[in-house]
Write a structure and sequence with these properties.
The chain is of the alpha/beta class. It contains ten helices and twelve strands. The strands form two sheets. It has a six-stranded mixed sheet. It has a six-stranded parallel sheet with strand order 9-8-7-10-11-12, with helices on both faces. Helix 1 packs across helix 10 (265-276) and helix 4 (105-116) crosses helix 5 (131-139).
Length: 277
Amino acid sequence: MSKPIRYRLYLIGYPIRHSLSPHIMNYIFRRNGIDALYELYEVESNLKQVIKIFRDTGVYGFNVTIPYKERIMEYLDGLSRDALEIGAVNTVQNKEGELIGYNTDWLGVYKPITRFGGNNFDQALIIGAGGAAKAAIYALRDIVKTIYIANRTFSRAKQLSLRFKRYFQDITPLKLGSKGVEDVASKVDIVINATPIGMKEGEKPIPTESLNNDTIVFDMIYKPLHTELLKRAEEKGLKTIDGLWMLIYQAVEAVKIWFDISADVDEIRRFIVEEVL
């Protein structure tokens, strides 16, 4: 009879069958000799019930993705300062029966940008207004002076601009698809796509023709790894950052919270690119 797993961890969200997170997390656990198993737990609608099950069965921790990064907060017992400031949670730890929410997504944005681009920029364009966009805006608070937030629903972009205005010299909401977005794209230093636009082949959130030659383009999508946005940006010779960097960096930070260990980001990326993708 096989010995039971000591630590059980999950990713919850919907849909999540495409997720690479189990490959990343279980690789980290194997490399560090942690008796843990990380699995997908697809939650189509019954979030409250699933959280109760996790409490009752003593699940050690879990990650949260679309569409629950904001809704999960009402079911938790406590929040880290980052999660509270951002208004979204992607990592939960079970501390002796209390579920504490954290946000490591912002580090998944901050670390690749500062590693590949630098830490001092004038302007950035964030596409989206959900939990991922909130994390991106928070990540840029000390390295960008002016932020533009473009979203299909203008009111949500406006809400975010009010929420985060204290961090920036200027913050402006825009309606995605408007002429204003193209004008802004032509002058910013960083563009971050924090929407699912680009998961389907051939679609991209903004026209890349308007991007200037010094723009860094960051797409949070990692399937496909080279989205249409990144392909077109690379054709223009722009510096690009794919969503796999964010996924790995935020995962490494989550593991630090759960088990207080560090993992090698580049080693994990090599494993994913060579063995999984």
